[in-house]
Amino acid sequence: MKTFVAVLGLASMVTLAACDSKQENKVENAYENKADALDNQADNMEAMADNLTGNAEAAAENAADSLENKADATREEGDKAEDAVEKKQ
After folding, report:
1. Cα angle at 55 between 50 and 58, to 5 degrees?
2. Domain spans, the chain
3. What are the residues whose beta carbons fall under 8 Å from the beta carbon of 32, sequence distance 6 or more?
4. Any idea of the CA torsion for 70, 76, 78, 80, to the nearest 10 degrees?
5. CA–CA separation, 67 vs 73, rounded Å?
6. Quick one: pLDDT band at residue 19, thresholds 50, 70, 90?
7. pLDDT at residue 17 greater than cutoff 90
């Protein structure tokens, strides 16, 4: 699922990049990079959870879910920031 969302997001970025200004792209890239880093942390946390059991596994899965939610929120913030830059132009 994550791979599909990432591919879909990448395709959307490529499509939008053709009509975005340099400033919009800079803002979008900054937020996207931050969100990608959070997704990577979540992936690492999930991999670690696979080696745990019981409450420790559940805690690690919850932490991974939290990181994924932060990544999603960061992408939404990036979209809003990009829209704000676009409106100024």
Report:
1. 50
2. 2-88
3. 9, 13, 75, 78
4. -140
5. 10
6. low
7. no
Report d(CA 75, CA 79) in Å as an integer: 6
Nearest to 29 by CA among 66, 70, 75: 75
Per-residue pLDDT tens for 33-86? 999 999 999 999 999 999 999 999 999 999 999 999 999 999 999 999 989 988
Residue carrying structure tokens 């200004």: 21
Percent of the chain, pLDDT > 70?
78
pTM comes to 0.69
* Distance (Å, whole) CA 72 – CA 67: 9
Query: DSSP secondary-structure letter at 31?
Result: H
Count of other CB atoms within 10 angstroms of residue 26: 12
The CA distances from residue 85 to 27, 32, 35, in Å, are 8, 16, 19
